[in-house]
Amino acid sequence: MRFKVENNHKISLKNLSTKPNTAQNDKENKTDLKKLRKKLSKLQDKMYAQGKYSVLIMLQGMDTSGKDSLIREVFKDINARGVNVQSFKVPSEKELKHDYLWRHYITLPERGKFTVFNRTHYENVLVTRVHPEYILFENIPDINDIADINESFWDNRFEQITNFEKHLAQNGTIILKFFLHLSKDEQKNRLLRRLKIQEKNWKFSAGDLKERKLWDKYQFCYEEVLNRTSKTHAPWHIIPADNKPFARKTVAKLILETLEKLPIKTPELDAKTKANIQAYIKELEQE
Questions:
Q1: Greatest CA span in the chain, whole angstroms?
Q2: Which CATH superfamily is domain 13-285 in?
Q3: Cα(20)–Cα(18) distance, rounded to whole angstroms?
Q4: Which residues contact residue 149 at a Cβ distance below 8 angstroms, ignoring those fewer than 6 apart?
Q5: Does the model's pTM come out above 0.90?
Q6: In what order do the strands lie in the sheet with 54-61?
Q7: For 75-86, how does the pLDDT look when each residue is reduced to its tens digit (9 = 90+)?
């Protein structure tokens, strides 16, 4: 199964399955994920010690696509020091006083660490494209009415996002973007579970049903995002998301495969310290 969106190949979401084409069952996927988590944890320790690369993981998907639980399961074995999760909701009053990328800039990962964006700067060409009236809250010069938000506006925004990611990649940030590809039927089932199981009621919002009615518009906007912004330095991967254990295992595997190609290794001690290790041991043991 090919997950990566090549930057010279246009995709159509309706032609891509939301279900895994594998015979592995949930138990096997969970076992595989445990092994992958341990390897990711060890690799992040080396990254932290080396201090050359940072990793930015971006997750996008329709409501109920499994972003929260994926983050919990994929990154649970990484030292808390080494991973930071950022969830981007409706912009705050302070955030709206800056350009739309500002709140993402200030949460970028330090060298040696992972940051996971749960929803991303792509909301600014997804939600705002489905609801262009939201753009008016940004108080952008020359944008005074919805009629001012034309195709040129969106072209510029796509270019700005691409340049933002290119800048990050050129300065040592490894960027991996994952779209959790959920079917409309599976979303319906997950929303029903939220309503029928009392412990899950808190996850439900009436707004989820309003957005569900705009499914086709969102699918169009997601296709635009995937086709226009999957680059060699910041690729998109489309993950079948109807099966959560498979989606989690697949994301972990793709992250690990990418990082294993990098020259990441624990730095060696300087010659003087290395030559005196036995002396330091003796000094401590004789205290």
A1: 79
A2: P-loop containing nucleotide triphosphate hydrolases (3.40.50.300)
A3: 7
A4: 132, 135, 143
A5: yes
A6: 83-87, 114-118, 54-61, 173-181, 236-240
A7: 999 999 999 999
